[in-house]
Amino acid sequence: MRSRRYAPIAGLVFFVIALQLALSATGTAYYLTQITMSVYYSLVALGLCLLMGYAGQISLGHAGFFAIGGYTSAFLTTHPVATSGGGSAVRLLQQLGLLVERQDLYGNAIVNLSPWLALAIAMAVTTAAALLVGLPVVRLRGHYLAMATLGFGIIVYRVVLGTAGLGEADGFSDVPPFRLFGWLEVNGRKPFAAQNYYIAWTLVVIVMLLGANLVRSRVGRALRSIRESEEAADALGVNVARYKLTVFVLSAWLAALAGVFATHYRGGIGPSEATAFKSIRYVAIVAAGGMTNLWGALTMGVLLNFLSLRGVFGSYDDAVFGAILIAIMLFAPDGLVRLPRLFRRIRKKLDGSLAA
Amino acid sequence: MKCLQWFAIAALASVVGGAWAAEGAEPASGPIKVGCIFSVTGPASNLGAPEKKTAEMLVEKINAAGGVLGRKIQLIVKDSEGTPEKAISFAHQLIDEEGVLAIIGPSTSGESLAIKNICQENKTILLSCAAAEKITDPVAPYVFKVAPKDACAAQWIFQTMKELGIRRIGVLASNDGFGLAGKEQLEKYAPQDHIEIAGSEVYDKATTDLTGALNKIKGQNVQAVVNWSTVPAQALVAKNMKQLGFDVPLFQSHGFANIKYVQAGGAAANGTIFPAGRMLIADLLPEGHPQKRVLMEYKKEYEARYHEDTSTFGGHAYDALTILAEAIRKAGSAAPEKVRDAIENLQGVVGTAGVFNFSKTDHNGIGMAAFEMLTVKDGKFALYKRN
Amino acid sequence: MPTDQIVQYCFSGITVGSIYAIVAIGFNIIYNTTGVINFAQGEFVVLGAMTAITLAARMPLALAVGLAALITALIGALVELLFIRPAKQPTVLRLIIITIGVSILLRETALHVWDEKVHALPFFTGTEVSSVTLLGAHVSPQVLWVLGACALIVAGLSLFFKFTLPGRAMRACAANRTAAQLCGIKVRWMVTASFMLSAGVGALAGCVISPVTQTQYDMGAPLAIKGFTVAILGGLGNSVAAVAAGLLLGLLEAFSISLFPLAYQDVVAIVVLLAVLCFRPSGLFGRRDAHAFGEF
Amino acid sequence: MDRWLLDTQGLNRFFGGLHAVRDLELRVAEGDILALIGPNGAGKTTTLNIIAGALKPESGVVRFRGQPITGWKPHAIAGLGIARTFQTTRLFPRMTVAENVQVGRHIRSRAGFLAGMLDLPRTWKEERAIRAAALAILEKLDLAEHADTPAGNLSFGRQRGVEFARALAMEPSLLLLDEPAAGLNIYETAELARLITKIRNWGITVVIVEHDMSLVMEISDAVVVLHEGSILAQGKPAEIQKDSEVIRIYLGEDHA
């Protein structure tokens, strides 16, 4: 049982490595940058898949969490910390190694908070926001839930767009790289392309591992039971509100984590990451992946974002996602990744009837 | 499992190894590739759409005339929808895959700032069409911008105000890169021109009603209102002010330089005062004016081809491409560092926005002389004259 | 604050509020017969105005507006026939996603059929510069048109639902689908009719407000969000309450300008919405237990 | 005090102007099958919902083993070992039969989010136990062959069986049944009667709301007749059958 569960993960690792080798062997390693960006976006889709596909709770505001993560980290790591004459707090940070000295593009020395500390604070802020929104949201269903999460997303968008300290319409564009340890850092520059490809995929592999375990566990079953019938789940002893809230926070974390890493990777973030349409794109990706299907969400998350980031859809980018939403819901509620399976089943049936 | 290990080792090797092989040297023949990142759709489409149209038109014209240095220019246009994440992605794509000599655009400040470092690091010339001063201040050797300085526009406005004896003003700005950059400059130069900004509001580009904000500003007893944006709200401000019976002069930014807004504003737009390049009044320019020929030509061709009026923003794309072509000619080569050096030494290039003079420290190349004060008379643009 | 400024805020609040209210009524018409929230409602407003603007160049304004409403109503019917009707086992989640998709498609179609530029219908009476003085405040005559249209739509709809056969049939579907079906009402066609009606009302709204607010291809979604906010504030399905809620939200937004920067205006509106959802999910005027938990 | 497994005191509940439950004093002895009967609108299901925590009473107390549980959330009440079925079956249609029953083991297992994600050996063991217990129950109810079928695909009668299995998987000490015979044919009803008796013999107390009189009279140890929200009569089935008041108001009306 267990080994069967881990086989697809091993397959994913295999694929990831093979892809990178194939790309560098064919001299097309430039694809890595856009793949890396897509992988980060697919992390948001994975979180949303847990929330929407498994627990059955729609969220039209997940871009908001991505933005909260990204903006918090961007703000903290670009805001200069005054080292001279700083209070005891600054000295303490310095002793703990939580300040980073670096030079900007023009040779000026600046001191910032360590991205690790920024990451921790970003996650804390996300938790607070998710709890704040989650508490009323767990009581709501259907249209009300959709509207409440949409509203949350719009608030985040308006705040980042309207606040001078967050760069208003321009956002941040000088976010430093995030040194994880040693030579390993989240950095969008060319020499770092391959290692960042692996950093992003490592995150996804870990999340897939944990996620695949979770959905098959007691908790995963409870979440699906909530999606099917809240009343029955409640009567069987499932603490519906707490489970909903926990999975809401969990999926917010994933979005924020993606936001932090993507922001350091790209060296910036803008308000366009927080728009309602961005949130809807994530919903479209999860829907295209088949809703209750982490692998589908991952596949579609990487694929659709990659195509979109390459400009394949041109000026029809938004329209493509709109069409996906409608087409999936009308014709393939199990998602695009299930289509081959559907064909296979039909073929098997045909074979069977021929043999008989 | 063995196989997996080999993979892992090989992958690790390529990671530690770092970068892939350097790109080959710039080919000396074949088309010169130029990338464009415009927000053709999305919230800044009023900038990107004319930019794309202009760039395509001008490249066709250059190529029809034999190209530059005997080589054609190949334009690769990407629609970023005004989002930095796409601009970044496209910048990488254009640089790494297409190996473009230069990138024209992006249309908005946020996007331009987001890819400024990427272009600099990869030694690819960036000719931004956006407004923010930060794009060329501090100067990055490979980064240029062609949109005139907001600071100059602000100074023109304040100068006119001083002539009119206006001391106390209200400021409105759209919540996008253009509006905010302008607001920043207004706030920066107001004190030295002894003008007090009594109230300022930032509105969403999709706003449909500004009577509330104007009412608030009206309550501050201001002598004039400045609106700084590129969005349709420019017409809305004019209309709403008239509806409120708010009878003080309305100043707008050079973003107002599009006859569409005058038409949308109807009778309310009359009397609006704003600084702008000379594109709008090309036919009013004296025959000998250095820009007259360029402007009339651009206007005629664009309007014939697209059946719509020219705007300042399309002009930015025109200027960027003109500057680039001129620099390649001067450099006698399409090698990035040579073209870059050539741009820095360009003098007296006539564009739609004005006459560009670049230097090592000025990567914008255009100053106060880019602007004239214009006004709207009977639904048409006219030179502003104090009377 | 001087009185004339207060009156002025009131007028801008009422204007904006009645626009929200008309959009909210469009939501309610469809919600009542189908239980669906049509996220594409804002697009009907844009389509109506854009069509009218195109037509107005070739015919008298009144005719153009009427024709635009009719065309948009047909588009509404088409949306229902193509996208809503074929949905099997339509859960609320699925229908929400479909209508969002429709909204995006309509918006993109508008972008490519028309363009990215701003358009406006001419003022119905007077011009851009005319203004009427009321209680010491200045308002555009078009504002009176907006208020009048809002009142007329509300009155017309309540007459329609009370006294006409199709109106009553639609109400019957809202009250009890199965019973309505048993009475020989073709429920499916009533759903189509509700989409037509709602699209038509949206288009009318789009035409009346176009001279004041101007029209651009992408202004549908923000309008829809405000309209939806108002519909929930009033209690889903309750159109008279929606008018009250619309005016309330409009006034709130107008006066919020005097306290907060304009950039946060939407935040104020949505914080109010979240608070209402949290404490009174049935809306400000609804019964506490009514509609509180729609089936998913 | 501990004589009763479940008892209520002065329970009241209104729906608008309707007084659905009126000063209800209900006592359930451990090991009994207690039937709640009465005409439509007598407040039977409301009472059941109040006990299960799905509805809150306006006033009054519900005690389980002497402990007040009034106003507790349904999941907390379920955690005490009070299981229930619904008037219209509420399965998890897109989950398999086995999974449905496994959710029934929720209160008897512990693995949380973290344990579930890490899939520690302990979690793994627990999961195996859950699966085994669920299969054992399906086995007992002759549903094992459908274990991997999506519950929504089963026939109506079998769905009801799965709902029973799911409730029994909780190892409840009290089982609340809301009209379990509704929609069943006479063979299925007879089967149901045997099942309920079997459940009682496993030591599970049963409170059943039912319209089928012959079923009620056959299996119950005690009968409570509700009328307009309050108790009209209570006693052994045989006594109730003889009670003239009950016959007049309830059976009489039925037969008229």
Describe this protein's structure.
The complex is a heterotetramer of chains A (356), B (387), C (296) and D (256). With 356 residues, chain A is mainly α. Chain A is built from 14 helices and 4 strands. In chain A, the strands form 2 sheets. Chain A has a two-stranded antiparallel sheet with strand order 1-2. Chain A has a two-stranded antiparallel sheet with strand order 3-4. Chain B folds into 2 domains: 181 residues, Rossmann fold; 139 residues, Response regulator (Rossmann fold, 3-Layer(aba) Sandwich), CATH 3.40.50.2300. Helix content of chain B is 42%, strand content 17%. About 3% of the residues of chain B have low confidence. Chain C is an all-alpha fold and 296 residues long. Helix content of chain C is 71%, strand content 2%. Chain C is built from 11 helices and 2 strands, in the order ααααββααααααα. Chain C has a two-stranded antiparallel sheet with strand order 1-2. In chain C, helix 2 crosses helix 8 and helix 3 packs across helix 8. The radius of gyration of chain C is 19 Å and the shape is globular. Chain C starts with a helix and ends in a 17-residue tail after the last helix. The relative contact order of chain C is 0.20. Chain D folds into 2 domains: 166 residues, Rossmann fold, CATH 3.40.50.300; 78 residues, no CATH class. Classes of the chains: A mainly alpha (356), B alpha/beta (387), C mainly alpha (296), D alpha/beta (256). Chains in contact: A-B, A-C, A-D, B-C. At the A-C interface, helix 5, helix 6, helix 11 and helix 13 of A face helix 4, helix 9 and helix 11 of C.
